[in-house]
Amino acid sequence: MSSLDAFARAHLARLDEDSLRRRLAPTARGACATAQRAGRELISFSCNDYLGLANDPRVVAAAQEAAGRYGAGAGASRLVTGSHPPLHALEERLAAHKGVEAALVFGSGYLANLGIVPALAGPRDLILIDALAHSCLWAGARVSGAEVVRFRHNDVEDLRRLADDHRARHRHALILTERVFSMDGDRAPLDAILAIAEAYDAWTLVDDAHGLGVVEAGARAPLEMGTLSKTLGSYGGYLCASRAVIDLMVSRARSFVYTTGLPPASAAAALAALAIVEDEPERAVRPLTLARRFTARLGLPEAESPIVPVLVGEAEAALALSAALEARGFLVVAIRPPTVPAGTARLRVAFSAAHGEDQVDGLAEALGTLLRQGCP
């Protein structure tokens, strides 16, 4: 056995001991929030397709038409090969949707934050970041070389105190947060955060990956990024900002400059989905309505978004509860450290406009029964 394989096997053994090893499961997603896994049809509550647009015939047709017309891939970085027409149209529509001058599409949401933050901050600068911000925001902050200071989750007084303590010693400052937090489903107090940013001349970057199209009301930040892979049912990431900022990203965001452009089919699918979001606003109401139906039936705190965490505690217990639900026909994946803090393993229940009330009630009944029976 090579030393490399020995290292990998030893590390895997430790992950197994702590119930933290991840495994891939072949799964085919279908319409009406269904999924096929191991020969069984399940009702999936583990997907971020909040409006059910990934399987919408109009979105699928747009992807097929673009692939047939422009090919399967973009060919190279957009600075080398140019921007195919669906990408240009998508960026214009994203900018209009957010009410800003311009937008830039990246290969994924993770790549977006990995490029945006270092393009704006360096060793002489300060980054104030929510303690529960997504991994990609943390990755971008660390790559930047700036001083990185975390503030307590959604605690504006802690943010104000840290800004007061640190801001004067730095050239520029960024505040990083999320509109809807991906593992807890709660919302950032953006009005208060933006007021602090203005008082201390800081630039706020909001990750809107889980808010676009479902929880968008309220204040907008000068830097709004998100993904095309959740509400819009496609794949990719984006930044919406002023024209000057977007032009700077084209030259300075390394994860844009050195990455092949988004495939035409993905861009066209997202463009079609965004048109549906804007033309059919009644869709946006349904996921939160269903989430609140679920929390009411289980006596949980009222949902703030389509994401509802059911805290379990230890990773092994979360896995056991997930397996018990799968046996009853529901796909609700366990979320474990390091994605969430130690001792807070959970089921992350995600609601979609594609779910029926009977499916939501069925999950609530099954989960309630299992919890009353002491599982896990």
Fold and architecture overview:
By secondary structure, this protein is an alpha/beta fold. The chain has 2 domains: 125 residues, Aspartate Aminotransferase, domain 1 (Alpha-Beta Complex); 189 residues, Type I PLP-dependent aspartate aminotransferase-like (Major domain) (Aspartate Aminotransferase, domain 2), CATH 3.40.640.10. The protein is 44% helix and 17% strand. The strands form 3 sheets. Strands 4-10-9-8-7-5-6 form a 7-stranded mixed beta sheet, sandwiched between helices. A 4-stranded mixed beta sheet has the order 1-2-3-12. Helix 12 packs parallel to helix 14. The model has no long low-confidence stretch (mean pLDDT 96).
Would you summarize the structure shown here?
Pfam families: Aminotran_1_2. Its cofactor is pyridoxal 5'-phosphate. This protein has 376 residues and is α/β, with parallel strands linked by helices.
- Named CATH architecture of the largest domain: 3-Layer(aba) Sandwich
Shape: globular
Number of distinct beta strands: 14
Largest sheet: 7 strands, mixed
Strand order of the largest sheet: 4-10-9-8-7-5-6
**Helix-strand pattern, N to C?**
HEEEHHHEHEHEHEHEEEHHHHEHEEEH
Whole-number mean pLDDT: 96
**Name given to the CATH homologous superfamily of the largest domain:** Type I PLP-dependent aspartate aminotransferase-like (Major domain)
Q: Which percent bin holds the helix content? A: 40-55%
Secondary-structure content class: alpha/beta
Protein name: 8-amino-7-oxononanoate synthase
Cofactor: pyridoxal 5'-phosphate
Domain Aminotransferase class I/classII large: 41-367
Keywords: Pyridoxal phosphate, Transferase
